Amino acid sequence: MGGRSVAGQVFLLQVAIVLLLVVAAAGALVLQVRHDSTTEARNRSLAVAETFANAPGTRAALSAPDPTAVLQPRAEAARAGSEVDFVVVMNTDGIRYTHPKPDRIGKKFVGTLAPALAGKSFTEEITGTLGPLVQAVVPIKADDGTVVGLVSAGITTENVGGVGDRQMPLLLTAAAAALALALGGTALVSRRLLRQTHGLGPFEMTRMYEHHDAVLHAVREGVLIVGGEGTLLLANDEAHRLLDLPEDAEGRHVLELGLDAGTGALLASGHVVTDEVRLVGDRLLAINQRPTDLKGGPAGSVATLRDSTELRALSGRAELAREHLKLLYDAGVGIGTTLDVTRTAEELAEVAVPRFADFVTVDLAAAVLSGEEPDAGTSLRRTALSGIRKDAPLYAVGERIGFISSTPQAQSLGTGEAVVAPALKEAHGWLAQDSERTAQVVEYGIHSLITVPLRAGNLVMGVANFWRSEKPEPFDEEELALAEELVARAAVSIDNARRYTREHTMAETLQRSLLPRNLPEQSALDISYRYLPAQAGVGGDWFDVLPLSGARVALVVGDVVGHGLHAAATMGRLRTAVHNFSALDLPPDELLGLLDELVARIDQDEATEDGSAAITGATCLYAVYDPTTRQCVVARAGHPPPAVIRPDGSVDFPEVPAGPPLGLGGLPFETAELKLEEGSRLVLYTDGLVEDRERDIDVGLELLRTALTGADRSPEDTCQAVLNALLPPRPSDDIALIVAGTRALGADRIAEWRVPSDPAAVGEVRASVTRQLTEWDLDELAFTTELILSELVTNAIRYGNGPIEVRMIRDRSLICEVFDGSNTSPHLRYAASTDEGGRGLFLVAQLTERWGTRYTPAGKVIWTEQPLP
């Protein structure tokens, strides 16, 4: 900026030129504006004068007694409207009739009149009474062409110049902006010049070039600069040495320098590469290449060459070690993601292909797959196979393999140590295993093998085999160590999966042994069911179907919290308790009350013994259906409500009071009575069907309603439809589902009599029974049935209270029931030889298949069952 440098001098010269151009442009613009303003003033004054002279009434006003009175207002109005400084009307002698200044009226006009008196309009610039001005004089002519007056209009020079003055600020502003832009552009150009040269003069730049040239040829890295057309522009000494370039290489095309085709094509192409290794002669060169025109530079590229022959070998070993560590890390993360033996073996095979071996096979003892400890021996089952191709002639998955003692696999199983076979075509012990198959394996290209035993402590579960075909080098000792480490990590996961499989199998076996294997025969309900254990572990869901007296059937579903053996065992205890309680013919609410007390006692006993987890939280739903009345009595303890599918296909969830879960105690359970039409379907289920981690129970119940809606479906079809709609891919909880289609016993299969409290009525009962049995074609049972009912009715009359009723039901067996209003229960006893009575119930027990007592709100019922002939 001081002017001492070339950049400064150029800067000052450009500023001077810009200023000169701006001044010249401003002067020319001022002159042009003034000329245009004067021309505009002449045109405007002439137009105003001619317009006023030819205006209607102007000529007539000249003949008026007082022309001034008529013309002065008109002239002033015209002057104001046309933006001129004056409009003067005068006679032919130049005496004014009008003027902006009234004191000038009547005086002589200042200016030239001759051209106007001659009939011509003209303009002139003069100094008049208002000062320097531009004015026009126009004649007023009579009809015959005689000039009878004159009109003059004008603009003072001050106003003429004012137009230019008003435009001057805009002109100067534009000039200033242009000057600023010129100065800015000049400054930017100068700054770039300074930046590129760093303010250096020729001497400094020459010295810098010499230093750069010395450094370029001294570095231990080859540098090549290639032009846009592939011409070698510069090569330092190291580049000459590494590429063995001729002395006259600069200026020649790179393809003419004797380089190998690949390297020459790369340098000529200018493509971007980073550390691309190429074999040039006996050297491994790492080539980096970048274009030179990325930021506006000249077309071409610059390449650097580095001899990495020795470093390559070292880095290769380091990279291999890094890959091995990465493989072990991935194996730790990717093996053992599930507690499934087969899947864990597959994960071992998948993680090692193709990063370590081309093919991997895993062979396990059959006992391991079922969760047991394997016996000593070499008979294994191929569990997993993974490879770079699918057509390898190795044993397929699922095949049972008996390895002979000379094979590496048998040696590995026997010693518990890994075995490497570097050349399979020379491994005679392996070739003897299966001469036809081993020949195919060798012909296929598999040439090297590592066999590693899958050990967990002293337990050998099988072997893992690593096969190589693509890489020509055989497995070495370092890779053997890696294979051992890899298999050791997988063996722990496989053993964990084996132990889990054993425990899961035991729990599932226990659970299924505790669940009903076959549903009992009964006529009240058409039942289908589904039971699905959880994927994560065996749970405590259970169900049961219990025939009761009087052709009734009880349905029960329950759920014990938790999973595993404890939950399965607890479920078995509860199911057994329900069996025992149901044998007492208790109402559902009383049965749940007893079950609640039982669970509380179990919790107390277990807490005092070993502090194991309590089972409080178990739920249960108990329903009793009577086909003679189509009544269903339901009670539940913390369990989801039942669903009822009506014969028309509609679905509802009846309001059943929700008692607390079993074991909490303190609150009584309540029942709900449902009237079910014949052909209805009663649906009982556990919460695993409608609730999980990703679905709220309200959503699940609505999905269940949708799946159940629809008529004309059997219970079996209904079960399948529900599972298709609601079953998750991997259930996290057990699922128990019962669909029971209701049936009703017709009136033709039921006979009822009201019996008076009179011993004489017993004979009438026997006669009625005989007639009814004859009608049912059961005459063979008449004698025994008369004896049974005679005894029961006699006891009811003697020891019970009225009313007394007798009912016979023909179902799968002949059912006889005697109702009375007493709560006293009869007891079976053995009468002594001297006793006169006490043998009635003994005879009843001998003549019937089953008998018992159940209580009703109004009394009790003594019932018996006899098999049909």
- Give the C-level CATH assignment of the largest domain: Alpha Beta
CATH architecture of the largest domain: 4-Layer Sandwich
Mean pLDDT: 83
**Percentage of residues assigned to helices:** 40-55%
Tally of individual domains: 5
C-alpha geometry: flat
What structural class do you assign from the helix and strand content?
Answer: alpha+beta
Largest sheet: 6 strands, antiparallel
- As a whole number of angstroms, the C-alpha radius of gyration is 59 Å
- Unreliable spans are 833-837
- Strands in their spatial order, largest beta sheet: 12-11-10-15-14-13
Q: What amount of the residues lies in strands?
A: 15-25%
Individual helix count: 22
How many DSSP-defined strands? 31
N- to C-terminal distance:
131 Å
CATH homologous superfamily annotation of the largest domain: PPM-type phosphatase domain
CATH topology of the largest domain: Phosphatase 2c, domain 1
Membrane topology: Multi-pass membrane protein
GO biological process, one term: phosphorelay signal transduction system
Main location: membrane
GO cellular component, one term: plasma membrane
What would a concise description of this structure say?
With 869 residues, this protein is an alpha+beta fold.
